[in-house]
Design goal:
Layout: E1 11-16, E2 23-28, H1 32-38, E3 54-59, E4 62-67, H2 76-87
Length: 106
Amino acid sequence: MGTLAPCAGRVTVTTKGLATNMYLRTRVGGHWGPKLKSAGYDTVVIKGKAKGPTYLFIDNGGVHFGKAEHLWGKDTRQTTQGIQEELGDQSIKIPHTPTSPTNPQS
Protein backbone atom coordinates (compact mmCIF):
# COMPACT_ATOMS: atom_id res chain seq x y z
CA MET A 1 0.00 0.00 0.00
CA GLY A 2 1.41 3.35 -1.00
CA THR A 3 4.90 4.33 -2.03
CA LEU A 4 8.17 5.23 -0.35
CA ALA A 5 8.67 8.09 -2.82
CA PRO A 6 8.94 11.45 -1.05
CA CYS A 7 6.15 13.97 -1.75
CA ALA A 8 3.93 11.24 -3.25
CA GLY A 9 1.16 11.66 -0.65
CA ARG A 10 -0.71 14.40 -2.49
CA VAL A 11 -4.46 14.96 -2.32
CA THR A 12 -6.67 16.74 -4.85
CA VAL A 13 -9.84 18.40 -3.60
CA THR A 14 -12.47 19.43 -6.15
CA THR A 15 -15.59 21.38 -5.23
CA LYS A 16 -18.41 23.17 -7.00
CA GLY A 17 -19.41 26.60 -5.77
CA LEU A 18 -23.10 26.94 -4.88
CA ALA A 19 -23.28 30.61 -5.84
CA THR A 20 -21.12 30.53 -8.99
CA ASN A 21 -21.71 26.95 -10.18
CA MET A 22 -17.97 26.89 -11.00
CA TYR A 23 -15.52 24.14 -10.12
CA LEU A 24 -12.43 24.70 -7.99
CA ARG A 25 -9.57 22.25 -7.66
CA THR A 26 -6.63 22.40 -5.30
CA ARG A 27 -3.83 20.01 -4.43
CA VAL A 28 -2.33 19.63 -0.98
CA GLY A 29 0.28 17.54 0.77
CA GLY A 30 0.83 16.66 4.40
CA HIS A 31 -0.64 13.90 6.55
CA TRP A 32 -4.13 13.65 5.10
CA GLY A 33 -3.41 11.62 1.95
CA PRO A 34 -1.39 8.88 3.68
CA LYS A 35 -3.81 8.77 6.64
CA LEU A 36 -6.79 8.44 4.29
CA LYS A 37 -5.09 5.58 2.45
CA SER A 38 -4.13 3.80 5.67
CA ALA A 39 -7.78 4.02 6.79
CA GLY A 40 -8.66 2.03 3.67
CA TYR A 41 -9.99 4.79 1.42
CA ASP A 42 -8.80 6.00 -1.98
CA THR A 43 -11.57 8.50 -2.68
CA VAL A 44 -14.09 10.51 -0.68
CA VAL A 45 -17.18 11.96 -2.35
CA ILE A 46 -19.41 14.28 -0.35
CA LYS A 47 -22.73 15.30 -1.88
CA GLY A 48 -25.11 17.92 -0.62
CA LYS A 49 -24.73 20.65 1.95
CA ALA A 50 -24.47 20.50 5.73
CA LYS A 51 -26.99 22.47 7.79
CA GLY A 52 -24.15 24.07 9.73
CA PRO A 53 -20.41 23.85 10.38
CA THR A 54 -19.44 20.17 10.17
CA TYR A 55 -16.29 18.10 10.31
CA LEU A 56 -15.70 14.73 8.68
CA PHE A 57 -13.85 12.07 10.68
CA ILE A 58 -12.52 9.04 8.79
CA ASP A 59 -10.98 6.15 10.68
CA ASN A 60 -10.51 2.42 10.22
CA GLY A 61 -13.92 1.99 11.82
CA GLY A 62 -15.74 4.11 9.26
CA VAL A 63 -16.90 7.64 8.56
CA HIS A 64 -18.48 10.11 10.99
CA PHE A 65 -19.79 13.66 10.54
CA GLY A 66 -19.53 15.83 13.66
CA LYS A 67 -21.01 19.20 14.54
CA ALA A 68 -18.36 21.91 14.39
CA GLU A 69 -20.08 25.09 15.59
CA HIS A 70 -17.68 25.21 18.56
CA LEU A 71 -14.73 25.20 16.11
CA TRP A 72 -16.06 27.96 13.83
CA GLY A 73 -13.59 30.84 13.49
CA LYS A 74 -10.71 28.93 15.11
CA ASP A 75 -7.27 28.72 13.53
CA THR A 76 -5.72 25.43 12.39
CA ARG A 77 -3.98 24.69 15.70
CA GLN A 78 -7.09 25.43 17.79
CA THR A 79 -9.27 23.33 15.48
CA THR A 80 -6.87 20.39 15.60
CA GLN A 81 -6.67 20.53 19.40
CA GLY A 82 -10.46 20.84 19.69
CA ILE A 83 -11.12 17.75 17.58
CA GLN A 84 -8.33 15.78 19.26
CA GLU A 85 -9.81 16.57 22.69
CA GLU A 86 -13.39 15.86 21.57
CA LEU A 87 -12.48 12.45 20.11
CA GLY A 88 -9.89 11.62 22.81
CA ASP A 89 -7.03 10.98 20.39
CA GLN A 90 -3.98 13.26 20.23
CA SER A 91 -2.66 11.50 17.11
CA ILE A 92 -5.53 12.74 14.90
CA LYS A 93 -4.33 14.82 11.94
CA ILE A 94 -6.68 17.15 10.10
CA PRO A 95 -6.84 19.25 6.97
CA HIS A 96 -8.53 22.49 7.92
CA THR A 97 -9.94 25.46 6.07
CA PRO A 98 -10.14 28.33 8.53
CA THR A 99 -12.99 30.82 8.38
CA SER A 100 -12.81 34.48 9.14
CA PRO A 101 -13.93 35.20 12.73
CA THR A 102 -15.62 38.39 11.48
CA ASN A 103 -17.51 36.65 8.66
CA PRO A 104 -18.18 32.99 9.53
CA GLN A 105 -20.24 32.52 6.35
CA SER A 106 -17.23 33.14 4.06
